[in-house]
Amino acid sequence: xxxxxxxxxxxxxxxxxxxxxxxxxxxxxxxxxxxxxxxxxxxxxxxxxxxxxxxxxxxxxxxxxxxxxxxxxxxxxxxxxxxxxxxxxxxxxxxxxxxxxxxxxxxxxxxxxxxxxxxxxxxxxxxxxxxxxxxxxxxxxxxxxxxxxxxxxxxxxxxxxxxxxxxxxxxxxxxxxxxxxxxxxxxxxxxxxxxxxxxxxxxxxxxxxxxxxxxxxxxxx
Amino acid sequence: xxxxxxxxxxxxxxxxxxxxxxxxxxxxxxxxxxxxxxxxxxxxxxxxxxxxxxxxxxxxxxxxxxxxxxxxxxxxxxxxxxxxxxxxxxxxxxxxxxxxxxxxxxxxxxxxxxxxxxxxxxxxxxxxxxxxxxxxxxxxxxxxxxxxxxxxxxxxxxxxxxxxxxxxxxxxxxxxxxxxxxxxxxxxxxxxxxxxxxxxxxxxxxxxxxxxxxxxxxxxxxxxxxxxxxxxxxxxxxxxxxxxxxxxxxxxxxxxxxxxxxxxxxxxxxxxxxxxxxxxxxxxxxxxxxxxxxxxxxxxxxxxxxxxxxxxxxxxxxxxxxxxxxxxxxxxxxxxxx
Lengths: 221, 338
Ligand SMILES: Nc1ncnc2c1ncn2[C@@H]1O[C@H](COP(=O)(O)OP(=O)(O)OP(=O)(O)O)[C@@H](O)[C@H]1O
Ligand SMILES: [Mg+2]
Known about the structure:
The complex is a heterodimer.
Chain A lengths: L1 E10 L3 E11 L4 E6 L5 H8 L7 E6 L2 E2 L8 H5 L2 E4 L11 H12 L3 H14 L15 H13 L5 E5 L7 H16 L3 E5 L3 H6 L3 E6 L2 E4 L4
Helix pairs in contact in A: 3-4, 3-5, 4-5
Chain B lengths: L1 H16 L5 H33 L1 H37 L3 E5 L5 H12 L4 E7 L1 H12 L2 H5 L9 E6 L6 H12 L4 E6 L2 H42 L1 H9 L4 H44 L11 H29 L4
Helix pairs in contact in B: 2-10, 3-8, 3-10, 8-10, 8-11, 10-11
The structure holds adenosine-5'-triphosphate (ATP) and magnesium ion (MG).
């Protein structure tokens, strides 16, 4: 469902960040993306969400060549993805409910549908009781779970998480990981960028390793 | 937003009760609900942007005043011009043409000619001044009385004063009439007494163009001020915009609340400008009426009428939206998702 074919990314002022990266992820697969700081993990995820465009090579997402997606259709690609960030990227002046509802509001769903799905999503991450709270009144782990609830509310086929446990303690990290496993079990593809070696070794999933922009292991499925 | 939540909750419980409704109805309900959701997005943006405006009253008022002054300048020039045009329009109606007949034309022939001219379609009134009455008048006014008595014959020509109809408004038409009259064989010179009216009129035309140009420049000022205001607002809500973009918001969605902000600024600036213009006109009302008394016209000071007021609001709101749109269009494209 996700194919990288000799993908290169060059930033004008940094030079090549990704070099001939090729791999394929299948529907329902879960994989870690790892590598030292500056290896290009975040950059790789950004290419999938078309936050950045690749310099060379091709990326296919559900059969669509991302290179050919026009600027105005990018939002519709993003709606099919679930993006999760290390810093959660929650709106601090909106309630938990409104934060989780945002992708649905953007997609133009009606009240009933939004209410139903937000509650289902919050229920899944175990935060149904916090819907009226504001993000800053929640713990780090809870905030990240809100971020996850928001990411999955549009029923994405691919979840991209950039250091989702970066600011969580080990216990909270495993809670979050269990959530990802649950999504994977219902057929969602999950790609997690992390340099948390413990986490990776503890969980037995495919690992894509980047070093100086090249994929040194895990490229072949 | 919390009110919305409550509403959603309420809807939710209602929906649970109705969950036995047949499936066919659900589909049409869904389309209807999507449309309603869309309208509610607009309503929400309309009112939340108003709320944001009211949250920072000082900043909003200052921006609105700057916008309002620009708009008030343009509209007051327009209004003053309208008033001046009304005044000159009345003056124009009182213009007349003097026909100096050739010296060999007798008073009697003059009278016949006057009768003939009276039949012209463009003519309202004709008045004959005989050689004798002209001389008598001249004697009275010039003070050369005794010198004139020494003259053997009367050197003054017969004069016919012609007043054209009011319908003859355009200066070209009047000039045409003068030329026609001058071509009559008895007429030596045809002269407009009120040539200055036409000079004034062409000055008014110039002023009109000036006002249009000035209005365009001031509109640009409004657009730029508005654009800058929205740019700052966008900067302020950068995080919100970035997050919305990351979860798949289109530019249309992101722009919506900002465009409504622009609309509100423009609208309130229009209202303020209207007030400024009205106060100004109230202050000018009595001096203008005194001026008009000099011309002994029943001259009515013009204010902005209903449709002009409406147009003022429409233009100012549109300029607000336009300024916002320009900046959003540019800035959202530039914005890096970082
Ligand atoms: N917008 C940008 N412009 C220029 N250079 C960039 C940009 N974003 C990232 N880089 C550079 O690209 C390289 C890879 O960055 P990236 O964020 O992908 O690394 P990473 O593997 O995610 O690192 P970390 O583990 O620290 O998050 C870095 O050297 C960084 O300086
Ligand atoms: Mg990174």
